[in-house]
Each structure stands twice: as structure tokens, then as C-alpha cells.
Amino acid sequence: MLVINISPLYLKCGALLSNSDSLIKDLENYKEKFKYIISNLDLDYNKSNKLILFEINYLQIDDFTKSPDFEFLSNHKIINNLNLEEKQALENNLLEYKENNNILSEPILKNKDIPKCYYCGELTGKKEYIIFKIFQKKCEKYGDITQLTISGIDYINNNLENSFYDLPNEPISNLVILGKHEKLVDLTEKNKNKISLKNKIYPYLLTTGEEGISIYRVDSINSYKKIGNNVMGPTSLWSLLNLTGNYEDPKLALKEALNGNNELIDLSVGDIYGGDYGGASLCSDLIASSFSKVSHSDNAKNVDTKDIGKALLIFYGVTYGQVSALISSDEKIERNIISGNTFGSLGLMQIIQISLGLYSGNTIGAFFNDYSNYYEIVGMIFEMGKNGLLENNN
């Protein structure tokens, strides 16, 4: 069984495999070779099945098809092997839709006798062509992505111990400053403060999104309402980073950004006042205005790509936390669970967390999860299991 969230940047995938001895041995054999499958995040869905999680950047499709991950998934029948005649006929059928970016009302291959995968998100002709080229499966819509995300959070909360975490709290002035930020760069797994929410999880605030961010109040697995949104989300951050460096991997772009230096880009308190501003207890290297030093083209010529990335990272993280706090301020809820793509960057997570705390008067805490980029995938499997759709499926 293959389930996919068709997001703007990635195909986020879950493969439900039979939890047999051969699978366990195969996983061990491939574990050190995987480039896409996240081997430390596989999930024992029940006694009989294991959920394998992976994501494919649209710019890395060719690399994926040549990877050990592709071979592993082929061995376990997640990637079909149609005969050449069938494959060519179906590919020809899809070719005319290859550049179609419109949302399709019906899957192109609906009436074809080939295995299917289930998806949430936005299906276009172009993306269906990509999915078929990789997996040789047709796509069938399943569920509402917000409901699936909430179902995934509920499942993980109930079945995994200490599954949520926050990060060390730093004063905002230690993060939103000019220069290098060693503490952001040095964050590792050991900095995660593991937390168990269990029966204390509801109500909570959910901040989620790809192109933009949306904020929900969640009172139970089946009761939620949208309370606000912001147009700048993970795709916005990646797009701006990509303009500066022409990257192929968002995670690499953020890793480089963390090592950047924003001194030539952001305007500081000291640039305005000549030193600390004692009247408001503002230190001289505190950012007063993002990107203001490159308002003239001559200044812009002297900055490095990773330095622009650093300024973007801070600007985005602070904006994310600030907007989320302001929208959520009337809800009187102390937990905000962050879902969606933070590109695995603990530095970005910490900026969001501290900004959210600052702008909410420390009344709202940010909670992250190792599975936060796959909540909707876990939710699809959970909901499909409840509805009996996992039995006898490809």
C-alpha cells in the first residue's frame, strides 16, 4: 500500500509493508544505504505491518529512481513492474497531460486496470505523470488533508511515548542579532526536550501549511476550526532561498543558511543609534530592520548566498512565530503543534518557538515532532485502517 501527500515541494510518501522476517532483514541490509527512506522513523502500525516514510523532492526524481531506496521499494512491490507494452501504452496516455498544472477533476488513469495509490493534496496532470513514472500506479483521492493531519497527530500521541519535543529557550535577543549564531548551528538531537502529551493534548492550536500557513483550534480528533492564515509558508521560504542560490535541496539551503552571516544585510540598532539603545534596553547588534542594508544595488553586490539565506531564515522564523501568536492570542490555549515543512532544521524550529513565546507573552509554547512532516501520511493509514481499506490492497 502506497499513500502520498502531493505537496508543492515534495511527494511525501508512506509505504505500508507486511511486517515479515524478510522485510526486517531487508531493512537492515539497506538501512545504511538509504538516501530517502527515513529508517529511524519507520512505524509499527500493528503486529502485521510497518509504515515506511520517505519524501522525494521534485528536482531529485531521477536520483531517486537510481537509489537503493527505489530498489528496496521495488523488491517489496510498492513500485510496480508493468510489462513494456503496458507501460508504454499508459505513458503515451499520460504524455499529453505532462505539462498540465491544472487541478484534475478525475484521475487520468481512473479506468485503467493498474494498481492504485491513495493521495491527499493537489493532483495535477504533471504530478500524476511523475507519480506514474516512478511508481506505475494510478492515483485515487482520499480524505481532507487537515482532518488527516489531526488524525495522524492523535495516532502518534496515543501510540508513541514522549513523541513531542520543544527546544532550549534562548532570549530572542540571542537569536535575532547580526553575525553568526553558533547556538543555532550546534543544535542536535540531544537538545530536544522530549514531552508526552497523551490525555493532555486537547485542546491545542495547530499551525500547518506548505504554500502559506494556516492556524486551527483543535478540540478533539473530529472537532476543529480554522482561526487564521498567513500567505508566507515553507514554500515561500524555499522559493526565496532558491532565487539566491539555485539549490536542488531545501535542506541543504537551510543548512548553509544557518552558517551564514547577516551583518551586511540586516540593519541593526547600532546602525541607527551608534550603539546600544538604553531607553528601550536594546543591544546594538539587535536587528532593527530585515534586509535594509541591501536597499541599494551597490551593497547587494557584496553579499554571499548563504548570508542572504541567514537573513531569510531569521525573517521567516520570526514572522511565522509572530503571526501565529497574534492569530492565536484570543484562544487561551497554551500548546501550538507545528505541522508541515521545517526542512528538518532545528535552528528554524527554535526561532519559531522563541518568537511564538515572545509575541504571545509566553502563554503559548511550540511543540514539534519527528513525524511532523508526515502527520497526514500517518493519518491516512489510520483512517483507512478504520474504514477497512487496508485489506487486500496493492
What does this structure look like?
Helices cover 38% and strands 19% of the residues. By secondary structure, the protein is an alpha/beta fold. It has two domains: 2-143, Nucleotidyltransferase, domain 5, CATH 3.30.420; 164-369, Nucleotidyltransferase, domain 5 (2-Layer Sandwich). α14 links the parallel β14 (335-338) and β15. α10 packs across α13 and α13 (305-328) runs parallel beside α14. The longest helix has 24 residues, at 305-328. The model has no long low-confidence stretch (mean pLDDT 85).
What's a quick, concise take on this entry?
With 394 residues, the chain is α/β, with parallel strands linked by helices.
Task: Give the H and E element order.
Answer: EEHEEHHHEHEHEHHEEEEHHEHEHHEHEH
Q: Strand share of the residues?
A: 15-25%
Mean pLDDT: 85
CA-atom Rg in angstroms: 22 Å
The level-1 CATH class of the largest domain: Alpha Beta
N- to C-terminal distance: 5 Å
Gross geometry: globular
Spans where pLDDT lies below 50 across 5 or more residues: none
Counting DSSP E segments of at least 2 residues, the number of strands comes to 15
Count of DSSP H/I helices: 15
State the helicity in percent bands: 25-40%
The biggest beta sheet is recorded as:
7 strands, mixed
Q: Helix/strand/pairing class, anyone?
A: alpha/beta
CATH third-level topology of the largest domain: Nucleotidyltransferase, domain 5
Please state the oligomeric state of the protein chains shown. single chain
How are the SSEs ordered, and which strands pair?
Elements lengths: L1 E5 L3 E9 L2 H10 L12 E2 L4 E9 L3 H5 L2 H8 L8 H12 L20 E6 L3 H11 L2 E4 L3 H15 L4 E3 L5 H4 L6 H4 L7 E3 L8 E5 L4 E8 L2 E8 L3 H12 L4 H9 L8 E2 H5 L13 E3 L7 H4 L4 H24 L6 E4 L7 H14 L5 E5 L5 H12 L8
Helix pairs in contact: 6-15, 9-13, 10-13, 13-14
